[in-house]
Design goal:
Largest sheet: 2 strands, antiparallel
Structural class: alpha+beta
Radius of gyration: 15 Å
Strand content: 5-15%
Distance between the termini: 12 Å
Number of helices: 4
Length: 106
């Protein structure tokens, strides 16, 4: 239940934060998270246009929430998506995710 939002609240949050998200998956029962073996949040995945998992792991290379660290970190998601858009293979395909543990319903 920690961090739970309704679909309406999620849409409002995406809009208020000026997110560039084109879709958000609400996985209240943890079905998809368990399929992908997500252990922490955020545990990031990139799936290409063919439905192939091409990246699995951390959002970046510095396990910190400090804004100063975020500025100097290598964002694996941005780099990976940029490489995909350029028609290239993602160079970093897997890293160790970090964050708070996912609390699944039993």
């Amino acid at each position: 239940k920690q961090g739970y939002v309704t679909a309406k609240e999620c849409n409002e949050k995406v809009e208020s934060e000026k997110s560039l998200a084109t879709a958000v998956l609400l996985d209240n029962d943890g079905y998809v998270g368990k399929l992908y073996n997500a252990k922490v949040t955020p545990h990031m995945y990139i799936i290409d246009k063919n439905g192939t998992l091409v990246y699995n792991g951390a959002i970046d290379n510095i396990a910190s929430a400090s804004q100063e660290d975020v500025k100097k970190a290598t964002n694996y998601i941005k780099v990976g998506i940029d490489q995909l858009k350029a028609g290239k293979k993602i160079t970093t395909q897997e890293t160790r995710p970090y964050g708070c543990s996912v609390k699944y319903k039993i």
